[in-house]
């Protein structure tokens, strides 16, 4: 988990490490996915939000051709030259990847010193990687005086992860981390990239994120395997009708009509994606009414689909979800993010949050030996840049 560093300690540590004060701090948020899981790389719909867990990235230009970055999580300094950047399967790949994409895009990037602190837990499904990518690209814009428009920045960060780091993620995380807004969820069409900020009624309800204590062992392997299975589904459907280019184009009726002709595993993977797209649309409608009971019910259904059809949940996440649903005042509970460990997201009446923490704290620890961590969070603003 992230070490929760405080701003004054961070400034002091920067000074000790690099011998001069930091010039800026980029405060880049984590994200929760409220609903719409594994739909982004299928041209589908997602509804995530930014949260107030933030990476603090303290930076200063160093006038050389060298980048030096300290990570509080890894308690380690990474150093590299700007020329000939290569992947080394190290946490610094995320930084190198962004720098390398910026250079490829023709931007002049100089040497700089950076300190990564804050409190976005690594490997917990809150997207610490996209948060870091956004922090690094914003840092370079701030230090080296160039501007990327938001969509360029989003796509560049995704490219860094896809091509440099080698994880074939969709666009959701980078998009919401750049465009998220306080008290809003972001409804995104991952094909057209049209989006709408939809207000979340935060007076009486709040999202509680619960970390299972098990790092998201996603293994890019399982994630990529799911992508391949979806591609097999698309191949099948497009062989029946050429206009079907992705699972986004396939209706539930068409899926069920063809069920017997399909490999049962591929059918289930497709059923998750196709029904999840519908659930996102229904959830956004429910929110606008607002019908928060229905919204919570759709979150519950999403979890069942991730668990049974897409098989990306874990026994710890399932247990957290089951326990939460037994607590009065919990409207919906589901795993969030890629899965295979990480966190659940729970929609909870504000006056029941303590109850939830107490009950889950006890029961979950007793049956797993793990300590769950709770983050009570409203949607928060995107990247913040402060001069120090
Ligand atoms: C990870 C990826 C996203 C998305 C989710 C699953 O967070 O980075 O692009 O695919 O998994 O919804």
Order of helices and strands: HEEEEHEHHHEEEHHHHHEEHEE
**Helix and strand composition category:** alpha+beta
Q: Count of helices?
A: 11
Mean pLDDT: 95
Q: Gyration radius, to the nearest Å?
A: 21 Å
Name the beta content range: 15-25%
* β-strand number: 12
- Tertiary shape: globular
Low-confidence stretches: none
Main sheet overview: 8 strands, mixed
Cofactors and ligands: alpha-D-galactopyranose
State the distance separating the first and last CA atoms.
27 Å
Helical proportion?
40-55%
Structure write-up:
The structure is a single chain. With 388 residues, the protein is α+β, with helices and mostly antiparallel strands. Helix content is 42%, strand content 23%. It has eleven helices and twelve strands. It is globular, with a radius of gyration of 21 Å. The mean pLDDT is 95. Alpha-D-galactopyranose binds next to helix 5.
Please tag this protein with its features.
388 residues, alpha+beta, eight-stranded mixed beta sheet, four-stranded antiparallel beta sheet, 11 helices, 23% strand, binds alpha-D-galactopyranose
In short:
The protein is of the alpha+beta class and 388 residues long. It is built from 11 helices and 12 strands. Strand 3 (66-71) and strand 4 (76-81) form a beta hairpin.
